[in-house]
Amino acid sequence: TGSKLKALLNPQPSWGFSEYDPKAHTLGNQQDVLAGIPAGSDHNGGRLRFGPDGKLYYTIGEQGHNQGKHVCEPIEAQRLPTSAELEKKDYSAYVGKVLRLNSDGSIPDDNPVIEGVKSHLFTYGHRNPQGLVFVGDTLYSSEQGPSSDDELNILQAGGNYGWPHVAGYRDDQAYVYANYSKAKDCESVKYDPNHIPDGVPVQKETDWNAPNFKPPVKTFFTVPQGYTYSDASCGDSFYMCWPTIAPSSVAYYPKDGVIKSFRNSLLITSLKNGAIYRVLLNDDTKNVQGDVAKEFHTTNRYRMAVVSPDTRKIYVATDNFNGAMDESNKPTQNLANPGAIIVFEYTGK
After folding, report:
1. Is 0.70 surpassed by the pTM of this model?
2. Residues tagged active-site
């Protein structure tokens, strides 16, 4: 407005906007948009996008429940808010969801009614969705899976994306829902996501169904039943060798971009593999086609990618710590460019 620019912030568990003064290089006049949303120490999601409809879309992870230090806490990605909770502005059921809201934080009139309740919810049943991008009016989202089956989804109003009952496709391949939170004496049970101890209730993917379940359009990667998930060469970083990429963002490379092989593609950044995974779209941009290409591998954790306006450059923000796969495909903690913005520039014609 005038000489000031409104900039969205995310100081969880509330977020809002401040006005940026370009002359003084300062922020001020902060205003909350939505307060009291869930936050935790793991799987917060946190991607924010305005859609072509003028609405604000926001991803929230399931807070890392049912694993690690949160192993005895139940996953609530399927829990839906009640009218009574909304009246009290109790948004605790918003974990594992993608929200759609007006820019003032209110609930849009055309939001989906899910099991009789209209809320900020746009979709649910998510694990850790960290990427959002609109291509036309199609909303794509990248989502981190457990030990396999990272997902690329098309988000549709009121859709249920299956977590924790389904990872990837509903195919009973490798993944079962092991509900540690329901195990007797959970605190004394040794957690292992792939070799489930006795006493932990399990459920096959096909034992669950929902009429509004939406499968992914692509996984990274689906592996067969009986997959061992173990590789001695990975040592203590065994989890780094699981068939996942840990997708962290998704961007669109346009049809008229200068890099011909990249045209009409989604660019998905990987935290684990230090690479961009390129997924070609159909001509109408409403689905994917063909194979996945792996681009720009370095020993880094890629947090987010942005395509420059002239489409000649792809800027990538990197994490400043944690593990990644090096260029010989071995786990390492020694990142090449921690906490940096790196750029890949096309110099052809």
Report:
1. yes
2. 43
